Structures are given as C-alpha cells and as structure tokens.
Amino acid sequence: MRPLRTAGMPFRYLLFLAVTLSTSLSEQTRADQNEDWYQVELIVFSQQDLYQNERHPTNITLEYPQNWQRLESDTSTSADNPRPAEQSLIPLETKDFSLGPDEYTLSRAAGYRVLTHIGWRQPGLGQAQSPWIIVSGGHRHGNHHELEGSIRLVVTRYLHIQADIWKTSFASTPGTGGALPGNPVRPDNWPRLPVKPWLSALPVSDDASPVTTIDTNSPVDQRHPPIKKIVVLNQSEQVDLNKPTYLDHPEMGVLVLVTRHTSTAAD
C-alpha cells in the first residue's frame, strides 16, 4: 500500500500532528454483546495521485446493496414523550464529531479535498443485519455526486468497517480538464452510474431515461456531463475502538473512528 504524502510529509504523520484523540479507553476490538451500541464517524476525501501511473479498469460494476439505509434526522417529540427513545442510523450533529481537527487539516493540505464528513450511532449488527449507509459528496451533477456508494459497520468476532464507494470525474469537474495521465480511455468505455436507491422508485415519464441507471455518456441524456474517470475503493478493515482507521487508495481515502456509545433509549 503506497504511503500518502502532502508537501513531503506522510499523511499519517500529518494526522498525528493535527490532533491527539482521547484514547484512554480500551483499544480492544472484540465485540461485547452487553454493550453493543457504537458511534461511527468518517471522513471521505480525495487526494492527488502523486505518481500518476495508476491505471483504472473500466470493466467495473457499480451498484447499491439491497439492505441500504439513508441517514435521516428524526427529531420528533410529543407532550407524552418529550424525549423519545434514541434511534439508530440518524446523522450526528457537528458538535458530536471527534474528527473535526482532521477535517480542518485535510482542508488546508495541498492535494487533499474533503468530500463528506458524516457520523451515526447504531447497535452492533452482523453481516446479515447491518445496513449499508449511503454516502455521497463532492461536486454535484444532476442526480449524481462526485462521491457515491455505501459504507457500513459489521460486528462479527471483531469490528469491521466495509466500504464500497466510487469517485467519478466528470468533464466539467474543476481540475479535470484535458487528458487524464495514465488512463487514456474513451469516455463511453465507463459503466453507467447507478441511480440512488430511493430515486429508483419514482415514476418515470415515457420519454425519460430508465430509473435503474442513468447513462451519463448518452448523447440523448444532456443532464450530465460525460464521465472522464471512475475510481473505486472497495475494502474491509478491522477496526480498533477509539483509534482512527484508514482505508487507502491512491486517489481517495476514508478516515474512520468507531467508539462505544451508551444508548439513552428509555426502558
């Protein structure tokens, strides 16, 4: 795995200088069935490929999983229940973030750009039950974003973070004009971008494109610019509690922090 650098400084060292996280709690990874709520926070960012020799395959499959979940706020209260039981899989507020200093460092480092910074809380769930959280960010083009895909936390014997995300460079994305070094492929060689799952249920008029996919390279679909490049990050990494975990790719990365969370759900 190639080390990441910014202005001659390794990325991991840059993060260490940016912030010292509170790690007084155990770094044990083994799942505890008696304390099975977790807080997940992650930053997805793009980074300049300093080597520019990465050749990205075009015969890739982009799809959303069946068990997907959007992070949607639910702040409903009532006179009978002024403080409702805590719900899982709702977006964290910025005040609850721990990786704010890391986002600040990335936003100021040459060659890096934060695409999204999100977080949520959830009970520990296994492979069959744990939902994939839909993520998106970066520049927007119609119904698509520069960053798309899904990420989830899985509890087996240990904790794992699993990511299946892709970053699309469109013709009009700032900084991507002209030929792309190391990847001289025709735009129409790239696969179609999958529509976000909740949009696929919307009704379609007779003259509209199919809702299952949108062909961004089709001359009859002028809602999206042509695709210049797609890079995919599909990884699964074991997570240490209270320690940042890093998913690596020459052109993007994911910084993840998983901590214990004591649920405030009413008895």
Number of strands: 13
Radius of gyration: 20 Å
Terminal residue distance: 47 Å
Given as residue ranges, the uncertain stretches (5+ residues, pLDDT < 50) are 1-8, 19-34, 76-84, 175-185, 205-222
What is the typical, i.e. mean, pLDDT?
77
What is the strand content?
A: 25-35%
Shape: globular
Largest sheet: 5 strands, mixed
Q: Please identify the structural class as seen in this structure.
A: mainly beta
Number of helices: 2
Order of helices and strands: EEHEEHEEEEEEEEE
Sequence of strands across the biggest β-sheet: 4-6-7-8-11
Keywords:
single chain; 267 residues; mainly beta; 5-stranded mixed beta sheet; 4-stranded antiparallel beta sheet; disordered N terminus
Task: Report on the architecture of this protein.
It is globular, with a radius of gyration of 20 Å. It is built from two helices and 13 strands. The chain is mainly beta and 267 residues long. The longest helix has 9 residues, at 100-108.
What order do the helices and strands come in, and which of them pair?
Layout: E1 5-6, E2 9-10, H1 11-18, E3 37-47, E4 68-69, H2 100-108, E5 112-123, E6 132-141, E7 144-155, E8 159-170, E9 193-194, E10 213-214, E11 227-238, E12 245-247, E13 252-260
Parallel strand pairs: 4-6
Antiparallel strand pairs: 1-2, 3-5, 3-13, 6-7, 7-8, 8-11, 9-10, 12-13
Kindly summarize this structure in a few lines.
The protein is mainly beta and 267 residues long. 6% of the residues lie in helices and 34% in strands.
